[in-house]
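Subject: Cytochrome P450 6a9 structure
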Amino acid sequence: GSCAFGIECNSFEEPGNEFRRVGRKHFDTPRNHPLKVFVMKTFRGLANGLGMKLIHDDVAEFFLDVVRRTISHREEINVSRNDFLDLLIKLKNTGRLEADGGDIGQLSFSEIAAQAFIFFTAGFETSSSALTYTL
């Protein structure tokens, strides 16, 4: 939580930590059955109509809320933590990371939340995830 969101979550010392609980729910309860993924990619309209999702609603809401509150807090008190979310906030506000850098384009809140979620999931279970995708 610290390098991505700038939040001290102490997930190593606290097994019941919210970040840990949400991460476990995301990985321990599979929602990506191959047939479901096929339908979602091939027939998007049908998948949307049936309410098919790959991420649990409460997991998505947790990350949306964490990102929303963190961005709001940082912008209100004008704090910079030099972490992943800080880079995304700079892209949201200016469309660039450095003063002399090229204009990449501003990020929306949804794009920031999605990037933060991917960053979290990529680091949650790196060894098992790498082996799973390798197989």
